[in-house]
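Thread title: Can someone regenerate the structure for this chain?

I was given the following input by a collaborator and told the matching structure tokens would be attached. They weren't. Posting the sequence so someone can regenerate them.
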Amino acid sequence: MPKKDSIRDLIALEAARLMYEEGVGEYRDAKRKAAKRFGPEKTLSLGSHLPSNAEIHAQLRRLIETYEEKEHPERLLRLRLIALSFMEMLQRFSPYLVGSVLTGAVTSSSDIDIHLFPPSVEDVEELLDELGMPFETETVPIRKGNEFLEYTHIYIEQEDTEIECSVYPAEERNRRFISSITGKPMERAGIEKLKKIIAQEAEESKNG
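Best answer:
Regenerated them for you:
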């Protein structure tokens, strides 16, 4: 039977706390920040003490369930309704909801992550301009193997919530991105699927 790694568990719990209480948005950043409290990160990594994103995610869900039994369902519904309104607004760009608002592990600092597949970034920007919707555009270079690829993100604020739209070429609509948490194809929901999720949870809440 493998020996339980208490340091790994402590780092996972601390990383989850950082995400829950301090609003650290990325698992990578929370993990590194947490690891520094238990020793040099390089040493911990070589000792296989660094937890996976899935382990941190599990601890984060436990914190939410423990401290937000009443607040969480209302927050999740509000974020999903905001997401749905934006996806309907951006329907021509084949939007998909991904991330914590879909999986349900939302905190008070969670944003909304949407994937878009327009003919061009300019098409999205022009529509937002027409709608009078303030936004910011950022292009981020990401290294994949021996090449650098540029990915564009459009940020929109709504009701004190940030909507991050990741923009991909239209021909990549059927591409299934890999989740950094599970290592499997990322869960995603289009407009109709999200409507069904909202309706199903409303029905369960009414009957519960």
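The helical segments are 6-21, 27-35, 41-46, 53-67, 71-89, 100-103, 121-130, 191-207.
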